[in-house]
Amino acid sequence: MLTAPDLRICFAGDSYVAGTGDPACLGWVGRVTAAAVDRGHRLTAYNLGVRGETSCQVADRLGRELAPRLSAGDDHRVVLAFGVNDTVLVDGRVRVPPTASTEALLRAVDAARPARVLVVGPPAVDDEAQNGRLHSLGEFFAAACADQGVPYVDTFDATVADSTWRREVREGDGFHPGTAGYAALAGVVEAPFLAWLATT
Amino acid sequence: MLTAPDLRICFAGDSYVAGTGDPACLGWVGRVTAAAVDRGHRLTAYNLGVRGETSCQVADRLGRELAPRLSAGDDHRVVLAFGVNDTVLVDGRVRVPPTASTEALLRAVDAARPARVLVVGPPAVDDEAQNGRLHSLGEFFAAACADQGVPYVDTFDATVADSTWRREVREGDGFHPGTAGYAALAGVVEAPFLAWLATT
């Protein structure tokens, strides 16, 4: 590129966005950001991942946290990534049912606009029943994104079948991988993320 | 430690907190956090650095951004680090005079409580007149922190005399270093940061 635009990107979501469990303190967000910088993008990344949050909680705080971060620069982007906490059972019921998760996703997309949005779906965990719910939630999210014309990156199929991801999650807290798992997840997201950055 | 507490730390401040200019996407915050994890701390770090913000702007958003991040865990901490933007001249006047910067610092300390607070002072830039103002602002901050019983880490004296820091800042945008400079700044902060984490 001749004159790289001054990109400001907010990554909003849950503990996977925050990189919980990665002793290298990069997570997938740090890795895909470094990959973009390495390719010449002039980019400021803000990590707005908060542990334990559902889609609704992220959507609730999104607008007020984006405002100070997207007030400068000349290309504003928002990456949304959540869903695992929605599918956790509390007293036998999911914290957020998939229709409500999808409504929250659409609310978050609205809060992010006019910034361009990319949605990264939830990865697999170490519980097959919850994985079934995550697979289903990913389909809800993919359909909603297609309807909105927002690009969607599925991470479930790749992580559920990735032996490194599965082993680190199992040996960790049942949810979060370590450095190798986050590198694997970054590998899933990197190509569609870079392709999205290249769109104008 | 036998049972490591579940530490939640927010780093609130400006572009130096965000790690602007570091192609490794770690900045000094990622590096001191990784050092703490390496020493056995069970720690979730949230980076709330925003480019261009003065002390007043950080203090204004602090309370609402800390709330969702310090609602879980059993040891809450806040690191405050700002000041360089306060000392930038606009139409011949500093954006924020040192007495107002100090009032904003005290307001931020209040917003952070009851979390334990550490203040990291502003580093040197590539402009000697501004460096004079930064040295002076650091003295205001140090005195206010001493008065409040809040630990203060000076970074000015070390960075103004660090040839790697000075060269990377000069060859960069005049304010931000690259990877080696951030590693040097992390080296200044790491020991007092780890000592502060060890206090109960």
TrEMBL record, chains A, B:
SUPFAM superfamilies: SGNH hydrolase (SSF52266). Residues 11-184 form the SGNH hydrolase-type esterase domain. Gene3D superfamilies: SGNH hydrolase. Signal peptide: none annotated. InterPro entries: GDSL_Rv0518-like (IPR053140), SGNH_hydro (IPR013830), SGNH_hydro_sf (IPR036514). This is Lysophospholipase L1. It comes from Krasilnikoviella flava. The lineage of its organism: Bacteria, Bacillati, Actinomycetota, Actinomycetes, Micrococcales.
